[in-house]
Design goal:
The protein has 9 helices and 9 strands. It has 292 residues and is α/β, with parallel strands linked by helices. It has one domain: 3-Layer(aba) Sandwich (Rossmann fold). Strands 3-2-1-4-6-7-9 form a 7-stranded parallel sheet, with helices on both faces. A two-stranded parallel ribbon has the order 5-8. Helix 2 packs parallel to helix 3. The termini are far apart.
Length: 292
Protein backbone atom coordinates (compact mmCIF):
# COMPACT_ATOMS: atom_id res chain seq x y z
CA UNK A 1 0.00 0.00 0.00
CA UNK A 2 1.36 3.42 -0.94
CA UNK A 3 1.75 5.99 1.79
CA UNK A 4 0.05 9.36 1.44
CA UNK A 5 2.68 11.88 0.33
CA UNK A 6 3.41 14.86 2.54
CA UNK A 7 1.17 17.85 1.87
CA UNK A 8 4.34 19.92 1.59
CA UNK A 9 5.61 17.84 -1.33
CA UNK A 10 4.55 18.65 -4.88
CA UNK A 11 5.37 15.50 -6.82
CA UNK A 12 3.05 12.50 -6.44
CA UNK A 13 4.44 10.03 -5.74
CA UNK A 14 7.29 12.04 -4.17
CA UNK A 15 10.88 11.71 -5.32
CA UNK A 16 13.31 10.63 -2.60
CA UNK A 17 17.05 11.17 -3.07
CA UNK A 18 19.02 9.06 -0.56
CA UNK A 19 22.80 9.07 -0.08
CA UNK A 20 24.78 6.11 1.24
CA UNK A 21 22.37 3.35 0.25
CA UNK A 22 24.80 0.42 0.32
CA UNK A 23 24.27 -0.49 4.00
CA UNK A 24 22.52 0.46 7.23
CA UNK A 25 19.94 3.22 7.34
CA UNK A 26 20.47 4.08 3.68
CA UNK A 27 19.72 0.53 2.56
CA UNK A 28 16.68 0.28 4.83
CA UNK A 29 15.36 3.65 3.62
CA UNK A 30 15.90 2.68 -0.01
CA UNK A 31 13.78 -0.43 0.49
CA UNK A 32 11.10 1.54 2.33
CA UNK A 33 10.94 4.16 -0.42
CA UNK A 34 10.40 1.50 -3.06
CA UNK A 35 7.91 -0.41 -0.89
CA UNK A 36 5.86 2.77 -0.39
CA UNK A 37 5.74 3.41 -4.11
CA UNK A 38 7.92 6.51 -4.03
CA UNK A 39 10.20 7.43 -6.89
CA UNK A 40 13.72 6.87 -5.61
CA UNK A 41 17.22 8.05 -6.42
CA UNK A 42 19.54 5.58 -4.72
CA UNK A 43 23.22 6.44 -4.46
CA UNK A 44 26.46 4.95 -3.16
CA UNK A 45 30.18 5.37 -3.73
CA UNK A 46 30.27 2.13 -5.69
CA UNK A 47 27.49 1.12 -8.08
CA UNK A 48 28.26 -2.54 -7.42
CA UNK A 49 26.98 -2.11 -3.86
CA UNK A 50 23.54 -1.24 -5.27
CA UNK A 51 23.21 -4.39 -7.38
CA UNK A 52 20.13 -5.43 -5.38
CA UNK A 53 18.23 -2.52 -6.93
CA UNK A 54 17.21 -2.58 -10.55
CA UNK A 55 16.96 0.70 -12.42
CA UNK A 56 13.43 1.38 -13.63
CA UNK A 57 11.26 4.37 -14.51
CA UNK A 58 10.70 4.79 -10.75
CA UNK A 59 14.21 3.94 -9.49
CA UNK A 60 17.39 5.72 -10.51
CA UNK A 61 20.66 4.19 -9.31
CA UNK A 62 23.67 6.51 -9.31
CA UNK A 63 27.31 6.44 -8.26
CA UNK A 64 27.95 9.24 -5.78
CA UNK A 65 30.73 10.17 -3.40
CA UNK A 66 29.50 13.26 -1.56
CA UNK A 67 33.02 14.64 -1.13
CA UNK A 68 33.32 15.02 -4.92
CA UNK A 69 31.64 18.26 -6.10
CA UNK A 70 31.37 17.11 -9.72
CA UNK A 71 29.66 13.88 -8.71
CA UNK A 72 27.18 15.76 -6.52
CA UNK A 73 26.32 18.18 -9.32
CA UNK A 74 25.96 15.34 -11.83
CA UNK A 75 23.79 13.19 -9.53
CA UNK A 76 21.39 16.02 -8.67
CA UNK A 77 21.17 17.07 -12.32
CA UNK A 78 20.53 13.48 -13.42
CA UNK A 79 17.82 13.03 -10.78
CA UNK A 80 16.06 16.23 -11.79
CA UNK A 81 16.29 15.34 -15.48
CA UNK A 82 14.89 11.84 -14.84
CA UNK A 83 12.10 12.72 -12.40
CA UNK A 84 11.64 16.46 -12.83
CA UNK A 85 12.26 17.31 -9.19
CA UNK A 86 13.68 16.14 -5.85
CA UNK A 87 11.09 16.28 -3.07
CA UNK A 88 12.99 14.63 -0.21
CA UNK A 89 16.74 14.69 0.32
CA UNK A 90 18.05 12.19 2.87
CA UNK A 91 21.64 12.96 3.85
CA UNK A 92 22.58 9.55 5.18
CA UNK A 93 26.16 9.09 3.94
CA UNK A 94 28.59 9.25 6.83
CA UNK A 95 31.57 7.59 8.49
CA UNK A 96 32.91 7.17 12.01
CA UNK A 97 36.32 7.38 13.62
CA UNK A 98 37.53 6.18 17.03
CA UNK A 99 40.27 8.05 18.87
CA UNK A 100 40.85 10.06 21.99
CA UNK A 101 41.19 13.72 21.06
CA UNK A 102 44.96 13.62 21.62
CA UNK A 103 45.33 10.39 19.62
CA UNK A 104 43.47 11.53 16.52
CA UNK A 105 45.29 11.83 13.21
CA UNK A 106 44.37 15.02 11.37
CA UNK A 107 44.14 13.42 7.93
CA UNK A 108 41.49 10.99 9.15
CA UNK A 109 39.61 13.68 11.05
CA UNK A 110 39.54 15.94 8.00
CA UNK A 111 38.24 13.10 5.84
CA UNK A 112 35.41 12.48 8.30
CA UNK A 113 34.50 16.17 8.27
CA UNK A 114 34.56 16.11 4.47
CA UNK A 115 31.98 13.31 4.41
CA UNK A 116 29.83 14.06 7.46
CA UNK A 117 29.71 17.87 7.24
CA UNK A 118 30.94 19.27 3.94
CA UNK A 119 29.43 16.46 1.86
CA UNK A 120 26.09 16.92 3.61
CA UNK A 121 26.27 20.68 3.09
CA UNK A 122 27.16 20.18 -0.57
CA UNK A 123 24.06 18.06 -1.11
CA UNK A 124 21.84 20.62 0.61
CA UNK A 125 23.17 23.45 -1.53
CA UNK A 126 22.66 21.38 -4.68
CA UNK A 127 18.97 20.56 -4.07
CA UNK A 128 17.80 23.81 -2.47
CA UNK A 129 17.45 25.86 -5.67
CA UNK A 130 14.82 23.46 -7.00
CA UNK A 131 13.03 23.23 -3.66
CA UNK A 132 12.98 27.01 -3.32
CA UNK A 133 11.59 27.40 -6.81
CA UNK A 134 8.72 25.01 -6.02
CA UNK A 135 8.33 26.29 -2.44
CA UNK A 136 8.23 22.71 -1.19
CA UNK A 137 10.47 19.87 -0.09
CA UNK A 138 11.97 18.13 2.90
CA UNK A 139 15.61 17.71 3.95
CA UNK A 140 16.43 14.88 6.34
CA UNK A 141 19.88 15.05 7.94
CA UNK A 142 21.18 11.95 9.70
CA UNK A 143 22.90 13.02 12.89
CA UNK A 144 23.29 10.86 16.02
CA UNK A 145 22.76 10.87 19.75
CA UNK A 146 26.46 11.73 19.43
CA UNK A 147 25.33 15.08 18.03
CA UNK A 148 23.60 15.83 21.35
CA UNK A 149 26.06 14.42 23.86
CA UNK A 150 29.69 13.35 23.59
CA UNK A 151 31.55 10.18 24.49
CA UNK A 152 35.21 9.26 25.01
CA UNK A 153 36.94 8.06 21.82
CA UNK A 154 34.30 9.80 19.69
CA UNK A 155 35.22 13.44 20.19
CA UNK A 156 35.86 14.26 16.54
CA UNK A 157 32.88 12.21 15.37
CA UNK A 158 30.81 14.11 17.94
CA UNK A 159 32.17 17.34 16.49
CA UNK A 160 30.92 16.44 13.00
CA UNK A 161 27.46 15.63 14.30
CA UNK A 162 27.29 18.75 16.48
CA UNK A 163 28.06 20.61 13.25
CA UNK A 164 25.14 18.86 11.52
CA UNK A 165 22.87 19.85 14.41
CA UNK A 166 23.94 23.49 14.31
CA UNK A 167 23.70 23.77 10.55
CA UNK A 168 20.27 22.10 10.49
CA UNK A 169 18.86 24.39 13.19
CA UNK A 170 19.90 27.46 11.21
CA UNK A 171 18.68 25.89 7.98
CA UNK A 172 15.14 25.25 9.14
CA UNK A 173 14.83 28.86 10.27
CA UNK A 174 15.92 29.95 6.79
CA UNK A 175 13.85 27.61 4.63
CA UNK A 176 10.67 26.81 6.53
CA UNK A 177 9.15 30.21 5.61
CA UNK A 178 9.69 29.05 2.01
CA UNK A 179 7.69 25.84 2.50
CA UNK A 180 10.69 23.52 2.99
CA UNK A 181 10.91 21.27 6.04
CA UNK A 182 14.10 20.15 7.80
CA UNK A 183 14.36 17.17 10.15
CA UNK A 184 17.42 15.94 12.06
CA UNK A 185 17.48 12.22 12.90
CA UNK A 186 19.35 11.24 16.07
CA UNK A 187 19.76 7.46 16.46
CA UNK A 188 21.51 5.60 19.23
CA UNK A 189 23.05 2.16 18.59
CA UNK A 190 21.53 0.41 15.56
CA UNK A 191 22.57 -2.70 13.68
CA UNK A 192 24.20 -0.85 10.83
CA UNK A 193 27.82 -1.04 9.72
CA UNK A 194 28.76 2.22 11.45
CA UNK A 195 30.80 0.54 14.21
CA UNK A 196 32.30 -1.94 11.78
CA UNK A 197 33.56 -1.30 8.25
CA UNK A 198 32.39 2.32 8.20
CA UNK A 199 34.56 3.46 11.13
CA UNK A 200 38.35 3.74 11.27
CA UNK A 201 40.43 4.27 14.38
CA UNK A 202 43.71 5.92 15.21
CA UNK A 203 46.90 3.91 14.87
CA UNK A 204 48.20 5.70 17.97
CA UNK A 205 46.67 4.61 21.28
CA UNK A 206 47.93 6.25 24.45
CA UNK A 207 47.87 4.10 27.58
CA UNK A 208 46.65 6.96 29.79
CA UNK A 209 43.33 6.84 27.90
CA UNK A 210 42.93 3.07 28.20
CA UNK A 211 40.21 3.36 30.86
CA UNK A 212 38.26 6.10 29.05
CA UNK A 213 38.60 6.20 25.27
CA UNK A 214 40.00 2.66 25.21
CA UNK A 215 37.05 1.14 27.03
CA UNK A 216 34.53 3.00 24.90
CA UNK A 217 36.27 2.04 21.67
CA UNK A 218 36.36 -1.63 22.62
CA UNK A 219 32.75 -1.63 23.77
CA UNK A 220 31.44 0.02 20.60
CA UNK A 221 33.42 -2.34 18.38
CA UNK A 222 32.17 -5.36 20.35
CA UNK A 223 28.56 -4.21 20.03
CA UNK A 224 28.65 -4.08 16.23
CA UNK A 225 25.82 -6.22 14.90
CA UNK A 226 24.34 -6.62 18.40
CA UNK A 227 22.95 -3.12 19.00
CA UNK A 228 19.32 -2.88 20.16
CA UNK A 229 18.23 -0.61 17.31
CA UNK A 230 16.42 -2.08 14.27
CA UNK A 231 17.27 -0.18 11.04
CA UNK A 232 13.99 -1.27 9.41
CA UNK A 233 11.90 0.18 12.25
CA UNK A 234 14.03 3.33 12.10
CA UNK A 235 13.48 3.70 8.36
CA UNK A 236 9.73 3.29 8.81
CA UNK A 237 9.74 5.99 11.49
CA UNK A 238 11.62 8.38 9.22
CA UNK A 239 9.24 7.78 6.32
CA UNK A 240 6.20 8.19 8.57
CA UNK A 241 7.52 11.51 9.89
CA UNK A 242 8.21 12.88 6.40
CA UNK A 243 4.90 11.86 4.84
CA UNK A 244 3.01 13.35 7.78
CA UNK A 245 3.70 16.76 6.28
CA UNK A 246 4.84 18.06 9.68
CA UNK A 247 8.10 16.24 10.50
CA UNK A 248 9.63 17.23 13.85
CA UNK A 249 12.87 19.16 13.92
CA UNK A 250 14.41 16.36 16.00
CA UNK A 251 13.62 12.66 15.60
CA UNK A 252 15.25 10.57 18.32
CA UNK A 253 15.47 6.88 17.43
CA UNK A 254 16.20 4.20 20.01
CA UNK A 255 15.56 4.01 23.74
CA UNK A 256 19.21 4.86 24.44
CA UNK A 257 18.87 7.98 22.31
CA UNK A 258 15.84 9.16 24.27
CA UNK A 259 17.44 8.46 27.66
CA UNK A 260 20.73 10.02 26.58
CA UNK A 261 19.11 13.16 25.20
CA UNK A 262 16.97 13.67 28.29
CA UNK A 263 20.03 13.16 30.48
CA UNK A 264 21.89 15.84 28.52
CA UNK A 265 18.95 18.22 29.00
CA UNK A 266 19.04 17.65 32.75
CA UNK A 267 22.80 18.19 32.88
CA UNK A 268 22.56 21.44 30.90
CA UNK A 269 19.68 22.67 33.04
CA UNK A 270 21.70 22.06 36.20
CA UNK A 271 24.86 23.69 34.80
CA UNK A 272 23.04 26.70 33.37
CA UNK A 273 20.94 27.20 36.48
CA UNK A 274 24.00 27.11 38.75
CA UNK A 275 25.67 29.76 36.61
CA UNK A 276 22.70 32.08 36.15
CA UNK A 277 23.94 34.81 38.49
CA UNK A 278 27.39 34.86 36.86
CA UNK A 279 25.87 34.97 33.39
CA UNK A 280 23.59 37.89 34.19
CA UNK A 281 26.33 39.80 36.00
CA UNK A 282 28.52 39.83 32.88
CA UNK A 283 26.29 42.43 31.16
CA UNK A 284 26.75 46.16 31.57
CA UNK A 285 24.73 47.35 34.57
CA UNK A 286 21.37 48.61 33.35
CA UNK A 287 21.94 52.17 34.61
CA UNK A 288 25.44 52.40 33.18
CA UNK A 289 24.35 50.92 29.86
CA UNK A 290 21.51 53.42 29.55
CA UNK A 291 23.89 56.29 30.15
CA UNK A 292 26.34 55.20 27.43
Amino acid sequence: MNATPSKSLVTEPPVWFITGCSTGFGLALARQAIEHGFKAVLTARKLSSLSAFSASPDVLVLELDVIEPDQVAHAVSAAQAHFGAIDVLVNNAGIGYFAAVEEAEETDVRRMFEVNVFGLNRMIQAVLPGMRQRRSGCIVNLSSIGGIRSFPALGHYNATKYAVEGLSEALWQEVEPLGIRVMVVEPSGFRTDWAGRSADESAVQIDDYRLTAGITRAAVRASSGKQPGDPVRAAKAIVKAVVSGQPPHHLLLGADAFVGAMGKLEMLRADFGAGEAVARAADFPAVAAAAV
